[in-house]
Amino acid sequence: MRLARRLAIVFWAAAAALTSASCMREERGFRVSPPPSGRVQTVRLTDFQPGPAQPPEVTQNAYEENAYAVSEGKRLYEQMNCVGCHFHGGGGIGPALMDAHWIYGSDPSQIFSTIVQGRPNGMPSFRNKLNDDEVWKIAAYVRSLSGQVAKDVAPSRSDDMSGPPPESATEKKPPVKSGGIPKSAEMPK
Amino acid sequence: MRMSWRVLLCFCVGFAFAACSNANKDGGPAAAPQPKSPQATRLPTGAQSAGEQEDGQWLMPAKNYASTRFSGLNEINAENAKALKVAWTFSTGVNRGHEAAPLVVGDTMYVVTPYPNILYALDLKNPGSVKWKYEPDPAAAAQGVACCDLVNRGAAFADGKIFYNTLDAHTVAVDAATGKEVWKTQVGDINKGETVTMAPIVVKGKVLVGNSGGEFGVRGWIQALGAADGKVVWKAYNAGPDSDVLIGPDFKPFYAKDQGKDLGVSTWPPDAWKIGGGTVWGWISYDPDLNLIYYGSGNPGPWNPDARPGDNKWTCSVIARDADTGAAKWAYQVGPHDLYDWDGINESLLVEIPFNGQQRKVLVRPERDGYVYVIDRATGEVLSAEPFAHLTATKGVDLKTGELAHVEEKKPGTGKVVRDICPAAPGAKDWEPSAFSPQTGLVYIPHQNLCMDFEGVEANYIAGTPYVGANVKMYAGPGDGHRGEFTAWDPVAQRAVWKINERFPVWSGAVVTAGDVVFYGTMDGYFKAVNARTGEVVWQFKVGSGIIGQPVVYKGPDGKEYVAILSGVGGWSGAIVAGGLDPRDPTAALGYVGAMGDLPDYSTKGGMLYVFSLP
Question: Nearest-CA distance from B278 to chain A in Å?
Answer without folding.
Answer: 19
